[in-house]
C-alpha cells in the first residue's frame, strides 16, 4: 500500500510539474527521444472456443518511448499494463509492443488537440493470480498463478494538446487483440517462481481490450 | 566462488568510491545544474560506479538465491537467452521502478540532462540484466523495458518532490526531501567508501568528511 501511495504521489508530481516542452509541439514533433506516460481505464473480454468472460472495467498504466523521425512520424516502444478482475481472480496484463505513430490532422472531430494514430504489435505476458483459489484444470494446490503468453496487435487514436503552462498532455483510445498461446502454472519457492507445468493452448483463447488513457509528455 | 565476487566488488569500490562526491563538490544541485560536456572517462566512471553498486546490492540482497541458483555457467550462457520472467508485479513494477529511480537520480546528480539520465539509466539497467543478474536468471524482457522507464518516471517525481521539500522552512520536511533524493547530500561533502569483508558478511564502510 505504501508503495502504491508513493508511486501515485510521484506520478502526480510528474504530471503537475512536468517540464514545459520547449521544442515539442502537439502538431510539430521534435526529433529524438520522448517519453509519454499516463493512466486510465480498460474494458476487456476473454473469449475462447467454449467460453466468454467479461473482465469488466480495470485500471491501466501506459508508457510510450518515442523516437521521433520527423515532425509527423515516430517509432514507439510501449507498455500497457492492465489490471482486471476476472471472477475472483486478478488478471495482470502487460502489452509490450513496438509500433509506429503518425499525425493525422484530417481526423479531428472535436477540438481535443492535434490528433495522431498508431499501430502496434508485440507480445503480451498475462498473469492470472489465483489468490489461494483453485481452477478446475490445476490439481497442484501450491500453484499460485497462471502465466500466459502470446502475440498482441492493436490500433490507437489520440490527441496531443499543450496547456497554458506549456506542458503537453495526451488522451488516447486504443483497441487491442491478444492471443493466449502458451499456459504455465507457477508456484513460488521463496522468492523464486518455479514453473510446475507448461502447455500449448489450442482453444482459440483471445483477450479483446478497449483502453482509454490520459497522460503527459515527461520529456 | 563468492570470494571472487567480493574481491571484484572490493576493487571497484576502492578505485571508484572516493570519486563519488568529490568531482562535483560545490556544484549546484542537479535540478539547477547546467547540462555539461563530459569526457569519455567521466561517462565510464559514472557508469562503473552504478555497475559496482548493482553488484554490491545484488550480493547482499540475493545471497540465498545466488547460493541456490547461481553459477558462472549461467552468467555466460543466459545473456543469449532473454525471455519473459515469471515474477509478480510486486517485483516487476515496484522493486524495479524503485531501483531504476536510484540510477536516474544518480545520473541527474552527476549533472546529466533528463534525456541523458534516462539513456544512462537504460544502459545501467541493461548491464544489470545482462551482466549481473544472469548469474542466477535469464535477462527479463519486462525488466529491460520497465526498470528504466518506470524508474525514470518515479525518479523525475522524486527529484521534483525532493526539491520542493528541501525548500521548506521545516527541518523535518527538508529531511524528507533528502530521503527522497539522497544524492542531494553528496555535492556538499567528501565521501569515500571502503568494503568490509568477513567470512559470512559483506558490507561497506562509508567515510563522510564535512
How is this structure best described in words?
The complex is a heterodimer of chains A (219) and B (210). Chain A has one domain: Porin. In chain A, 7% of the residues lie in helices and 62% in strands. Chain A contains one helix and twelve strands; from the N terminus they run αββββββββββββ. Chain A has an eight-stranded antiparallel barrel. The longest helix of chain A is centred in the first third of the chain and has 15 residues. Chain A is elongated, with a radius of gyration of 19 Å. Chain B is mainly α and 210 residues long. Chain B has one domain. Helix content of chain B is 61%, strand content 8%. Chain B is built from nine helices and two strands, in the order H-H-H-H-H-H-H-H-H-E-E. In chain B, strand 1 and strand 2 form a beta hairpin. In chain B, helix 6 crosses helix 7 and helix 6 crosses helix 8. Chain B starts with a helix and ends with a strand. The N terminus of chain B is likely disordered. At the A-B interface, helix 1, strand 1, strand 3, strand 4 and strand 7 of A face helix 4, helix 6, helix 7 and helix 8 of B.
Task: Compose a concise summary of this entry.
The complex is a heterodimer of chains A (219) and B (210). Chain A is mainly beta.
Supply the number of helical segments of chain B: 9
What structural class do helix, strand and pairing data of chain A support? mainly beta
Mean pLDDT of chain B: 80
Shape descriptor of chain A: elongated
Total of helices of chain A: 1
Biggest beta sheet summary of chain A: 8 strands, antiparallel, barrel
Amino acid at each position: 500500500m505504501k508503495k502504491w501511495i508513493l508511486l501515485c504521489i510521484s506520478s502526480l508530481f510528474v504530471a503537475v510539474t512536468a517540464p514545459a516542452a520547449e521544442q515539442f509541439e502537439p502538431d510539430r514533433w521534435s526529433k529524438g527521444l520522448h517519453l509519454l506516460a499516463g493512466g486510465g481505464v480498460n474494458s476487456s473480454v476473454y473469449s475462447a472456443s467454449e467460453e466468454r468472460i467479461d473482465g469488466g472495467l480495470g485500471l491501466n498504466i501506459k508508457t510510450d518511448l518515442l523516437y521521433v523521425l520527423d515532425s509527423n512520424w515516430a517509432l514507439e516502444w510501449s507498455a500497457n499494463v492492465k489490471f482486471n478482475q476476472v471472477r475472483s481472480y486478478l488478471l495482470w496484463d502487460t502489452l509490450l509492443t513496438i509500433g509506429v505513430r503518425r499525425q493525422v490532422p484530417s481526423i479531428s472531430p472535436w477540438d481535443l488537440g492535434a490528433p495522431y494514430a498508431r499501430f502496434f504489435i508485440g507480445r503480451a505476458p498475462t498473469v492470472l493470480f489465483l489468490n489461494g483459489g483453485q481452477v478446475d484444470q490445476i490439481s497442484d494446490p501450491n500453484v499460485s498463478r497462471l502465466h500466459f503468453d502470446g502475440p498482441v496487435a492493436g490500433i490507437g487514436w489520440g490527441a496531443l494538446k499543450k496547456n497554458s503552462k506549456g506542458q503537453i498532455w495526451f488522451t488516447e483510445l486504443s483497441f487491442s487483440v491478444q492471443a493466449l498461446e502458451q499456459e504455465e502454472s507457477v508456484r513460488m519457492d521463496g522468492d523464486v517462481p518455479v514453473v510446475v507445468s507448461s502447455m500449448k493452448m489450442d482453444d482459440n483463447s483471445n483477450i479483446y481490450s478497449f483502453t482509454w488513457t490520459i497522460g503527459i509528455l515527461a520529456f | 566462488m563468492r570470494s571472487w565476487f567480493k574481491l571484484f566488488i572490493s576493487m571497484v569500490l576502492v578505485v571508484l568510491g572516493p570519486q563519488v562526491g568529490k568531482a562535483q563538490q560545490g556544484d549546484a544541485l542537479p535540478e539547477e545544474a547546467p547540462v555539461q560536456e563530459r569526457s569519455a572517462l567521466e561517462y565510464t566512471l559514472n557508469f562503473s560506479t552504478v555497475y559496482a553498486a548493482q553488484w554490491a546490492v545484488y550480493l547482499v540482497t540475493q545471497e540465498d538465491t545466488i547460493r541456490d541458483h547461481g553459477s558462472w555457467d549461467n552468467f555466460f550462457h543466459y545473456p543469449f537467452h532473454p525471455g519473459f520472467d515469471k515474477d509478480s508485479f510486486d517485483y516487476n513494477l515496484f522493486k524495479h521502478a524503485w531501483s531504476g529511480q536510484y540510477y536516474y537520480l544518480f545520473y541527474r546528480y552527476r549533472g546529466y540532462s533528463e534525456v541523458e539520465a534516462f539513456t544512462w539509466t537504460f544502459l545501467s539497467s541493461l548491464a544489470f540484466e545482462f551482466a549481473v543478474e544472469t548469474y542466477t536468471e535469464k535477462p527479463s524482457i519486462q525488466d529491460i523495458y520497465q526498470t528504466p522507464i518506470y524508474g525514470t518516471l518515479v525518479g523525475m517525481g522524486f527529484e521534483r518532490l525532493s526539491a520542493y521539500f528541501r525548500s521548506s522552512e521545516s527541518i523535518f520536511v527538508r529531511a524528507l526531501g533528502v530521503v527522497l533524493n539522497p544524492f542531494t547530500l553528496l555535492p556538499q561533502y567528501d565521501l569515500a567508501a571502503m568494503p568490509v569483508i568477513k567470512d559470512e558478511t559483506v558490507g561497506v564502510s562509508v567515510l563522510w568528511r564535512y
